[in-house]
Amino acid sequence: MVRALFIALALCGGAGVLLYAWCWMFTPWAEGEDAPTRRMPVAWLLLAPAAVGMLIVLGWRGGSDWLSGAIPADIAAVVVGATVAFATGAGLWATLIDRTDTARGPRHTLSIRVLSIVLLALLFAILLSWPVARSGVALVLLPLAGLAGVVSSSLIPRWRELSGERVRRIREEQRSQMAAHLHDSVLQTLALIQNRAGASSEAARLARAQERELRAWLYDGDAPADSDLPTDLRDYAGALELDYPVRIDVVSAGLSTERASGELAAAAREAILNAARHAGGEISVYIEGSASGVDVFIRDRGAGFRLDDVPSDRLGVRESIIGRMRRAGGSGGVRSDENGTEVHLRIMTPSHQERSVPRPTAAREEHHG
Predict the structure, then answer these.
(1) Is 11 part of any domain?
(2) Can you give the residue range of the structural domain that contains 227?
(3) Does residue 307 fall inside a structural domain?
(4) Where is the region Disordered (predicted)?
């Protein structure tokens, strides 16, 4: 439909062609979309006929027919117009198309632009001393128009960047206003439902899930495929709250480069699952990152258990948590009493692992099934 409209407008005095060219120049690439890579050197192919036209004009300039005005005006107009069109097209193509092509590079764009400007400036200087051109002012103004187009084309990418930045700023302001409004109304209502209903109730579980989804939409944005450890554990906790009557709070402090695909994340997820499955209620997850390593504490407020009651053939915590951390070069420990259970996981950075001396550590182990 859009193409048909452009074709129809092209029949109305060429308005469709001009409108299409304007849209092509000023419409930015979609976000996340890469510019195509072209093997054919289009800019050089456009510059070649411009150079040929320039040689023809120089040949006329050195002949006897130059000052006498024997050169036909219509032929001169065609040659000059074609030279200007090809030189201007080469400069515009290098600036607007090849500039975004990583296979070309900035040197290619600069070379084409300089050659186009030199050709157009030289053509303008020659036409000033040509009697045929003096009789037609439009013929002299053609190179000037081409120069203006090539030089001003460098401003179009800047205009695109400024427009994109303005759109992003407006969206961010609208998002902040919406977040403030929802925080004052919806999020506070969901928090009130959770406090009144209790952590183990069905209403609190649903309210907690909706609160997580709303906060993620308002504040988190698009998370990378391989997210960091706090983001991964928050998502995992939100999924567990849909299946178990628990409330899981994940808090992080400090800077950590630990990724969600690591062994520490897998061991932490297993510990959180054990707490949700067997303790229920409220579960606290605290992540602390430092230059030496990362610590994760998972604490529940269950009834606790006796280590002697754990059968020797139950290897869940022994292998999925303690053993996994030991194989990864870290450590894991479990402390349980009548006030609840706490799992402490720690992994050091590679530089500190090389400097540290391994020492045997006793870890109390649990298994909730």
Answers:
(1) no
(2) 223-355
(3) yes
(4) 347-369
